[in-house]
Amino acid sequence: MTPVSMPDILEHLQRLGMSGYEAKAYVALVAAGRPVNGYEVAKRSGVPRSTVYETLGKLVARGAAYEVRGAADATDYLPLPPAALLDRMRREFDGSVAVLQTALPAVVAAPEGHLIHNLKDGEAMLARAEDVIAGARRDLFLSIWPQELRRLDARVREAAGRGAEVSVMSFGKVAEAPGGDLPGSVHEHRYSAPEAVLQDLGYRLIVVVGDRREAVVGGFGTDGSAWGVYTADPAVALMAAEYVRQDIALQILAERVGAAELDRLFATDPGLLRLLGRGRA
């Protein structure tokens, strides 16, 4: 496992609800290994002395630390052990999620229109794609390159485990993961050589569609740039799903009749040749 740095630990504690000062003070208490007073916590953590007792009071109030009597009746502090703290946070988080699953839908107003928004970079696009996959219950369509599939692999397996029918078109070999082959109907795009597609388009296209009701569509440039959109418009999501389905159908057809025969068919029909376009190898 990759070692986790101190800034990472502090960041994750803040994600779970602690302030920056609270996270620093709690880590200082854990690292001390014995009861320490506020002055020592400030010295160890970098929390200003003017706010360290207020910060420690907040930790005590949330049950992450305890006051104990030190020398000369001074107040020292002990942390709640990390395992106990994380277990408590997990219970509180799960409890809040359970309540909100019922409460939030009850206050949601009917949308005036179908949601659509831009995704500013590759990380935002992959995070939104994870959301789409997590919401899929019936079917899931992906047109994707191995570089992006590695990030989404675990989420795709979870969707398949929930019973979603998974269909994947991969522009390149799908590497076998520790969990084995990717579940569902998985096809490697050979009729359109990935190198030719990349040269023709200039970017790696990604399409992720969940239950034909929401989709992420975007591209990853060879220069590290990325662009994309998320939409909950069912018409757009349906078209995106059809794009993946038709591409899979063409790949299956090429496998059945042979790429050479399919090329001959396209070459003898100007209409099909025009639709095929460039990028075929």
TrEMBL record:
InterPro entries membership: TrmB-like, Tscrpt_reg_TrmB_N, WH-like_DNA-bd_sf, WH_DNA-bd_sf
- Report the Pfam families cross-referenced here: TrmB
Q: Where is the Transcription regulator TrmB N-terminal domain?
A: 13-81
What the entry lists under Gene3D superfamilies is as follows: Winged helix-like DNA-binding domain superfamily/Winged helix DNA-binding domain
- By what name is this protein known? Transcription regulator TrmB N-terminal domain-containing protein
* Native organism: Actinomadura macrotermitis
